[in-house]
Known about the structure:
Number of helices: 2
Oligomer: single chain
Distance between the termini: 108 Å
CATH topology of the domain at 242-359: Jelly Rolls
Number of strands: 13
Mean pLDDT: 81
Helix content: under 10%
CATH class of the domain at 242-359: Mainly Beta
Amino acid sequence: MSTRFLKPLLAVGMLLFGVGLIAAQTSGNTTFFTSRGDVVFPFTAPTRSGTPGTIDNMVINQTTPAAATFTTLTANAVVGGDASLGVTGQAAASATAAGGAVPIVGGAGGATSGAGGAVSLTGGAASAGNSAGGAGSVVGGAGSGSAAGGAVGLTGGAGGATGAGGAIALTSGAGGATSGAAGAISLTVGSATSGNGASVTIAAGNGAGGTNAGGDIELTPGDAVSTGTPGLVKINGNAGLTCATFFTIGAPAAATDSVFFIATRPLYVVSISQVHAVAAGGASTLQVTKDTSTDAPGAGADLLDAAFNLNATANTVQAGTVVSTVATRTLAAGDRLAVDFADAIQASSGIAVTACMAPV
């Protein structure tokens, strides 16, 4: 056959081959048309979930993981799905081997005086509406059988030869720009399925060398705005950590107003209660006052909305209602608490008054 006819036939053949190839790919096969017949290679496209594709059912052998350095890892948006980004250690190579660790380490500083690189884990910001920001979570691995779960440690960096160690700060998120409250901080031990509950230990550092002091443990409640109630230090929901008691043994000779507590630091009066062994036998009341400056005992501001009734049923505790004015029930260093009798003592005997306060 002359070349004049051969070239057009080859062009038509190549065109038919291309059309057949495209049609075969669409149907899931790659087909080559040859003089010896059609040769079909099954083809499977890779999936978005990560399943690799295959050509002619060929299996690609597993590769050996190698170390790599990444400056940025970004999860791109995926149509119809999420855009999660996972960093996962390699699975154990044998039944008793440990799984692969995932270290995230800031870069070393320069050779002379450069600071080390920071490591930051930050949940994503919400984009619109009332959507919540993304959570940030550090969770130890679950244990198996009788083994413990994986611990989570937060450790400040070691100081230089004479430098202080790195601090650890737990800071909740700030409130919204207009009226949002700041986020709370909670330290909670997990629930026990059997046995005793686990303890929570807060230990200050020991002093080292010479006569150096040990570290303090300081609990500082938040300040109030204007006339609001100040934050209080509580144990199991109870803020009355400091209590003072006035009492008489038997029947006092007279109803004498007396100081029974002097504040050495700012305190907030939380509660006041009273009991007596023998009722007065007639009208008789007792008020508790906050005395300041040079006030005589019982001459200061009343701390109870209503005075205690000394003629009420004996041996029955009366819980007083403390005034609501924050400034009145807050003691400064040097302020005193006093009992203020309004009537003659009469038959009253065995009187006891207890006031409990919280540090502010």
